[in-house]
Write a structure and sequence with these properties.
- It contains 18 helices and 28 strands.
- The protein is an alpha/beta fold.
- It folds into three domains: 4-180 and 484-575, Quinone Oxidoreductase, Chain A, domain 1, CATH 3.90.180.10; 194-329, Rossmann fold (3-Layer(aba) Sandwich); 344-464, 3-Layer(aba) Sandwich (Rossmann fold), CATH 3.40.50.
- The strands form seven sheets. Strands 4, 6, 7, 10, 11, 26, 27 and 28 form an eight-stranded mixed sheet that branches. A six-stranded parallel sheet has the order 14-13-12-15-16-18, with helices on both faces.
- Helix 9 (353-364) runs parallel beside helix 10 (379-395).
- Mean pLDDT is 93; it is low at 9-14.
Length: 578
C-alpha cells in the first residue's frame, strides 16, 4: 500500500506549493481570512532554535467555534487585539519537518512527522496552539521554544511513517476522549493545603481520620465533635500547623470565611450534614482541583445545586463514605473513572464527532461495557451511528441500542433497556445543564456520570450527592488532554488497535477551510471535518458525496464507507499541485 507521505516530493523543497494562511482578525466567520479566501504569506526562515514545518492535515474542532464566537475575549487569548495581532484556528494537526535550525540539527531532520499536543504551557502561562500560538490553518510555519521546550517538555509527538495525515491530526481529539476516563481528580487531602471540617451542633458520631490528618497546613473547624477536634488539634500542633475554630455559621455566612482565608479551601469535609443548602454554599469555597468529602449515613434533605462547569474545567471532586472513618472516602479503589466492565454505558448526544469516538472506544475496549445505549436528537446522526458501529459492536459481542431523545425521554429509554436497573455509566456529550442533570438521574446506585461536554463555570444543576457517600456514585469531568494521553493514542494507532480515521465525515483542501468552519458551526456533518492545507481545488465534501467529486478516492473507502490511508494517498495524488 502506498503511504501518503510518499506522494509528496522531497521535504527539502518547501516553496511548492506557495504559502497560504487563514488568519483570524476578530470574532465571527467574516474575520477569518480575507473575503472568505486564504491569504498569501511568505514562507519564514527558521532561526537557530526553530523548525519550519509543513501542515499536512487539520481536524476542525467544536472548541474552534468558541474562539470564533469570542475572538480576543477567549480566555486563552488574554483579551488580545486580533485586528493588530491575529491568530489562526487549527489545534488538531499533522506536521512534517521541512527545515531545521542550526542548534536543533542533532535532534531533528527534514521529513520527520509529528502530532502536536496543543495544551502548551511556557513559563507558567498557557500558550495553547491554535489560540495564543497561531494554529495549523496555514501551509508552512515555524515551531519554536514554546512548543519544543515548554513547561511540559516537548509538545511534539513522533508519528509513525505509515500513519495517514488525518489519523495523526485526529490523535488529539481522541486523546481528549481517553482523558475522560483518566483520573484527573485529587483523591486525598492536599499536603500543605487548606482544609475545612464542617460539622453541625449536637453531632455525636465518633469519627476517625485514619490517614491524612497531618496533610493540611491550615484547618478551619466549624461545629466539629469534641473528640475529633481534639485529635486534629493534637496532630496539627505536633507539626507546627494552624487550627482555626469558627462555630455557629449559617450557610449564608460561609462566605465570611473568605475574609480570613482568601485563598479558599483545597479540601472540605462535611460531617453528617443534612442540609443540601449548606452543601451548596460550602462548595462555592472549594478551590480548583479541590475535594469535597461527604461523611454521613443519612441522605441530604434535597439535591444540592452544583457548578457543573467546575466539575468539567476545575476537576473538583466529590467523594464520600458512610463513616465513621473519614479517610475511607479517598483513593482510587473507591473512586473509579473507567467504564464498568460488563456494564451498561449510556452516551447522550452520541451522534456528534466526539460522541462517535466515545462509542467506538467503548465497543473496542477489551474490558468494556456489554451494553451501549446511545441517544441523539438527529435521526440522520442516529443512522450514521447504526451504519458505522452496529456491525463493529456485533463483532465485539456488544449490544448497541439507539434512541431518539426527541421521541423518547432518556429516563424511559434507560429504564426500558435495563429493566429499571439503571446505567452503570452515563457520558454526556451535550453542553446542557438540563441534559446533564437528567443524565445523573438514570444512574444506578454505583454509577458514574462523565461530563465530557463543557458548560461555562457558573452553570448550576441539582445533583444527588447523597448517592456519593451512600452508594459510591461518581461525578467526573475532564477538559483537554495531556502528552501522555495523546502518546497512548499514537501507540494504539500504530499498533493497529485503534482507527482514528473512522471519525472522518468530511474533507476539503486549503480553500475549503472557511466552508469547513461554517459547516462545523451548523452541525452539517456527523463526524470530523478534516482540511488538507497542501491540497488545492478540493471543495468541502462529505464522504458519502465523495464519489461524485473524486470517484477514484471514494473507491478506496472501507466497505462501510469510512476513511482509509489509501483513500488519503489517492486524494493527495489527485489534488496536490506542486
Amino acid at each position: 500500500m502506498t503511504s501518503p507521505f510518499d506522494l509528496y516530493k522531497s521535504p527539502q523543497a518547501p516553496h511548492s506549493p506557495p504559502n497560504l494562511c487563514w488568519n483570524m482578525y476578530g470574532p465571527g466567520l467574516e474575520n477569518i481570512g480575507r473575503d472568505r479566501q486564504p491569504e498569501p504569506c511568505p514562507i519564514p526562515v527558521p532561526g537557530a532554535e526553530q523548525l519550519l514545518v509543513r501542515v499536512d492535515a487539520v481536524s476542525l474542532c467544536l472548541s474552534d467555534i468558541k474562539l470564533v464566537q469570542q475572538g480576543g475575549r477567549h480566555p486563552k487569548l488574554y483579551n488580545r487585539d486580533l485586528a493588530v495581532e491575529p491568530t489562526r484556528l487549527g489545534h488538531e494537526v499533522s506536521l512534517t519537518v521541512l527545515q531545521v535550525g542550526e542548534k536543533l540539527r542533532s535532534s531533528y531532520k527534514p521529513g520527520q512527522r509529528f502530532a502536536l499536543q496543543p495544551d502548551i504551557y511556557h513559563n507558567g502561562q498557557s500558550r495553547a496552539y491554535g489560540y495564543t500560538i497561531p494554529g495549523g490553518l496555514i501551509r508552512y510555519h515555524l515551531i519554536g521554544a514554546e512548543v519544543l521546550a515548554g513547561d511540559g517538555g516537548n509538545y511534539l509527538l513522533p508519528a509513525g511513517g505509515e500513519m495517514g495525515y488525518a489519523e495523526v491530526a485526529l490523535t488529539e481529539p481522541w486523546a481528549c476522549v481517553v482523558a475522560a476516563y483518566t483520573q484527573r481528580r485529587r483523591l486525598s487531602p492536599k499536603t500543605g493545603g487548606t482544609m475545612w471540617l464542617l460539622g453541625h451542633p449536637g453531632d455525636t458520631v465518633d469519627y476517625q481520620f485514619s490517614s491524612g490528618a497531618n496533610a493540611p497546613s491550615l484547618v478551619v473547624a466549624t461545629d466539629v465533635p469534641a473528640r475529633l477536634l481534639q485529635s486534629v488539634q493534637n496532630n496539627l500542633a505536633s507539626n507546627g500547623r494552624r487550627l482555626l475554630i469558627r462555630n455557629d455559621l449559617t450557610p449564608l455566612e460561609y462566605r465570611r470565611l473568605m475574609d480570613e482565608i482568601p485563598e479558599g479551601f483545597d479540601d472540605i469535609i462535611s460531617l453528617n450534614m443534612a442540609s443540601a443548602q449548606a452543601v451548596t454554599a460550602a462548595t462555592a469555597l472549594l478551590n480548583r482541583r479541590g475535594t469535597f468529602n461527604l461523611v454521613s449515613n443519612t441522605p441530604l434533605d434535597g439535591d444540592p445545586g452544583i457548578d457543573l462547569g467546575r466539575i468539567h474545567y476545575d476537576y473538583i471532586a466529590f467523594v464520600g463514605t458512610p463513616g465513621p472513618d473519614i479517610a475511607a472516602a479517598y483513593g482510587e479503589l473507591r473512586n473509579r473513572c473507567e467504564l464498568r466492565h460488563g456494564g451498561t454505558a449510556v452516551f447522550v448526544g452520541a451522534g456528534g464527532p466526539m460522541g462517535q469516538m466515545h462509542i467506538q472506544r467503548a465497543i473496542e475496549m477489551s474490558n468494556g461495557p456489554s451494553t451501549i445505549l446511545a441517544t441523539d436528537i438527529d435521526p440522520v446522526r442516529l443512522q450514521v451511528l447504526m451504519d458505522r458501529f452496529f456491525h463493529l459492536a456485533t463483532q465485539h459481542g456488544v449490544r448497541l441500542v439507539l434512541s431518539n431523545s426527541n421521541e423518547e425521554p432518556l429516563g424511559d429509554f434507560v429504564d426500558r433497556e435495563t429493566a429499571h436497573h439503571g446505567a452503570d455509566d452515563c457520558v454526556v456529550c451535550v453542553p446542557s445543564a438540563g441534559v446533564m442533570a437528567a443524565a445523573s438521574r438514570v444512574l444506578n446506585p454505583d454509577g458514574m456520570l462523565v461530563l465530557f461536554a463543557g458548560v461555562p463555570i457558573g452553570t448550576f444543576a441539582p445533583l444527588n450527592l447523597s448517592k456519593v457517600y451512600l452508594h459510591n456514585t461518581q461525578f467526573t469531568g475532564t477538559s483537554g488532554s495531556t502528552l501522555a494521553d495523546q502518546s497512548s493514542i499514537l501507540h494504539s494507532t500504530q499498533a493497529g488497535d485503534l482507527s482514528p480515521a473512522r471519525s472522518v465525515a468530511a474533507l476539503g483542501g486549503m480553500e475549503a477551510a472557511h466552508d469547513g468552519i461554517r459547516a462545523l458551526m451548523e452541525g452539517r456533518f456527523p463526524g470530523k471535518v478534516v482540511i488538507f492545507p497542501q491540497l488545492s481545488g478540493l471543495p468541502l465534501v462529505g464522504l458519502p458525496e465523495l464519489k461524485n467529486v473524486a470517484p477514484q478516492v471514494a473507491a478506496c473507502l472501507s466497505p462501510d464507507g469510512t476513511w482509509t490511508r489509501q483513500a488519503e494517498a489517492n486524494l493527495i495524488g489527485a489534488y496536490w499541485k506542486p
